[in-house]
Each structure stands twice: as C-alpha cells, then as structure tokens.
Amino acid sequence: MSDLEVRPEPVLCGGRDGVSGGPVRELLAARRVPLGEGTFVRRLLPSMGRRMVGAWCFVDHYGPDDITDEPGMQVAPHPHIGLQTVSWLHGGEVLHRDSLGSLQTVRPRELGLMTAGRAIAHSEESPRRHSPVLHGAQLWVALPDAHRHTEPRFEHHADLPTVSGPGFSGTVILGELDGAVSPGTTFTPIMGADLSLADGAEVRLPVEPDFEYAVLTMSGVTEVDGVRLEPGSMLYLGCGRGELPMRAEGDSGLVLLGGEPFEEKLVMWWNFVARTGEEIADARRDWMAGERFGTVRGYDGAPIPAPALPGVPLKARGRTR
What we know:
Radius of gyration: 18 Å
Domain Pirin C-terminal: 193-292
Shape: globular
Number of strands: 25
Structural class: mainly beta
Largest sheet: 9 strands, antiparallel
Family: Belongs to the pirin family.
Protein name: Pirin family protein
CATH superfamily: Jelly Rolls
Domain Pirin N-terminal: 43-141
Number of domains: 1
Distance between the termini: 25 Å
Strand content: over 45%
CATH topology: Jelly Rolls
Order of helices and strands: EEEEEEEEEEEEEEEEEEEEEEEEEH
Number of helices: 1
C-alpha cells in the first residue's frame, strides 16, 4: 500500500529513547488520509508523538466501507524499499500484483506479506467482482540494517495458526503468541495477532515483558487494560507486562502488535524506509527514471509518480517527537 499524500512529511524514527520501560496507556489520534480513488484511511502510525511499536512503523485502518457499486481499493503501482508490507483484511478482497510477477488475491484472515528489501513495486486493487464491504488494515515493518537490502519476495499464507480460550480466539499474523507461530518471514523479534472477543468476554492474554505493544480496534468496543476503545482507535501500551487484560462490550475484533523496541534510527519518507536522506533521494530518482524497481504488469493505469522531496535535509533521529 502506498502513502498517497501529495506532500508527505519525512518521519524520523527508531532508537530506544522514547520507549517506556513500564506499562503506559497512550491513545494515538488518527489522521484521515486518501488512499487511491474514493477510499480514505485512518492513519494511526506514525503519529505526532509515537513513531514505532517494535519494528512496526506504519498502520492504516480502513472501512468498513460499502463498495457494492464502487471500484473499491485502487492503488496504482508504486515503489518500496527497506520494509515489509502486511495486508490484513476483515472484509473484502485485495488483488496484489508486483514487479516479481506475483498475482495473488488476499482474503480475510489471510496473510499477504511483501518483503521489499532493496527494491520492489506493487499495486493493490479490489477485484472487478468483489464483496460489498471492504475492511482491513495495512501495516509496514521496518527491516533491520542487516536485511534491508535483501532480495524482494512475496508470501501468501492462507492457513495461519490460531489460539483460543473462553470467549476468545486469535489468529497469529506474524511471530508467536501463546505458543502458536506464524509461517510469515520475520527479521526482528516481532509479533502481530488478530483477536476476536465475544460479548462480555474477559481475557488475560500472555505477552512478553521485553516487547512493547499497541492494540488497534477493528470492530466493536473493547476495554484494554482499563481503557475503553472505539473502532478505529489505537492504544500504545509500552513494555513491562506479562499479561494484557481485555474485556469486550459486545462482539469485538482487535489487532495486537508488538516487538522488541527497534534500536536503529530510521528516516521514512513516502514509501521508503532508509537510514539517510541520500538513500531516499536515490530511491526517488530511480523510481522516476524507471530503474531498479522493475515493472508491475497487468494493472490498468499508470504508476504513481513520486512527490517532490522536501526542501530540508532528511536526517534519522529518535522514535518520538
């Protein structure tokens, strides 16, 4: 998925300076931004004060949208470097194409995982014959320095491991939760899980004390560690917990994200995650020149041109502002 803002601001993130050693309850405000033709998303990460959760560096939540008589998601070919994209749906379908030749329809509770590495381009669209409702999240994972120039790849995992308990079930998207391990490739200690709670369920979910966590509410109302969350909201939880208490007010769905705090400092601009402004400028130039990223074939439309670079130097700093 692309950041389609016309004038994207550089995001300076990473490092451990802003990571609390103990639990916190920090509600992150969403920004409404456009995504392709007629679709808007709630951008929850990066936010003004919180840049990352573990290696998770980007979170968009969209829908549920009625697209019965609409084209739905239409995101033209665009480039990525230095990250992984995670497509996660609760409703609808997304057709993925990339410059490796991948062609895959991703459906609800299936993992579409693209490792950009040194360079890749892709497009995402609702198929011509699609479900009436589109609802999901798009997430990015920053790659550590040792792996950020790796060869690009795309993975699709339709059968993911699950966990369950009284009034509760979960699907492990990435990493491990309560002994269940996702087949998705990871490069840092990280986890992501989709959680479903029945009305009135009270759950104490085991988590890693050394990980920092955040919860994205996909649907319904859930109280997480004493904080009441409406759909489309995100709560940053910090580190230092051995379990996470949750209580559902009606049936609800959440995505739990966590990981070891990302020690390296990054600069993120448009669809690129790098270490210096010069790397960002090089990637932008290569994309506009038709070099390095390859060609996405089969999408009915032109690639997205890169926005102009900001007039100030891009420098990597800490994870909060």
